[in-house]
Design a protein that fits this description.
Shape: globular
Number of helices: 8
Order of helices and strands: HEHEHHEEEEHHHHE
CATH superfamily: P-loop containing nucleotide triphosphate hydrolases
CATH topology: Rossmann fold
Number of strands: 7
Structural class: alpha/beta
Helix content: 25-40%
Number of domains: 1
Distance between the termini: 9 Å
Strand content: 15-25%
CATH architecture: 3-Layer(aba) Sandwich
Radius of gyration: 17 Å
């Protein structure tokens, strides 16, 4: 993993004074995105590079908007898990121009949101990590995109035993949405760098 981080740091655009560079870390569920993002964050912090990291799963919508909507389960996961247009207009479009973001952050236990304010330095790296980041509505906002490729079996084995027991949910919700994403967006081809995990 250390070699992969060095490779990434060498390839991403240089940070110039007064600019922000947006790095996307994309990959399917349990591919290792969050772990890798945190390693990159640590590597940049050791070089005293200002940065901010965002996890796209912090901004999912409440359950009633993404479950039992009369749509197919895969459609709910891909299209309704996030308010895609709201994030485009109020998150992605503002990353380079706003000094402060006000983001409704989701709490899984209470199924509610609490607005959190994030102050962005004028000069910084911004890391956005999560699934489906290269969807058509969002893909133009990144300066550099990393895709972490990991086989489905390996990703599935990283789930808890309890989560693995609901195989129908994987088949009907998660895997169909992943297949749709791969077919429609071809994220490995679009990415600037692909890492195998």
């Amino acid at each position: 993993m250390e070699d992969s981080i060095l490779t990434l740091v060498e390839k991403i655009p240089q940070l110039e004074n007064g600019n922000r560079v947006i790095l996307g870390i994309d990959g399917l569920s349990r591919s290792g995105k969050t772990t890798f993002a945190n390693k990159v964050k640590q590597a940049l912090q050791e070089k005293n590079v200002p940065l901010q990291i965002f996890h796209i799963d912090d901004y999912i919508v409440e359950r009633k908007r993404r479950y039992n909507t009369e749509n197919e389960e895969w459609f709910e996961y891909y299209n309704l898990q996030w308010d895609v247009e709201w994030l485009k207009n109020n998150f992605f479009q503002k990353l380079k121009i706003s000094n402060e973001l006000h983001l409704p952050t989701y709490d899984d236990h209470s199924d509610t949101h609490r607005v959190k304010s994030v102050t962005l330095p004028k000069t910084c790296f911004i890391i956005v990590e999560g699934v489906f980041l290269q969807r058509s509505e969002w893909k133009r906002f990144y300066d550099f995109m990393l895709y972490i490729d990991c086989p489905r079996e390996k990703r599935f084995n990283r789930e808890s035993v309890g989560t693995q027991s609901n195989m129908e949910k994987f088949k009907n919700r998660y895997w169909k949405a992943e297949d749709y994403y791969i077919k429609t967006e071809d994220p490995m081809k679009q990415a600037d760098l692909v890492l195998r995990n």
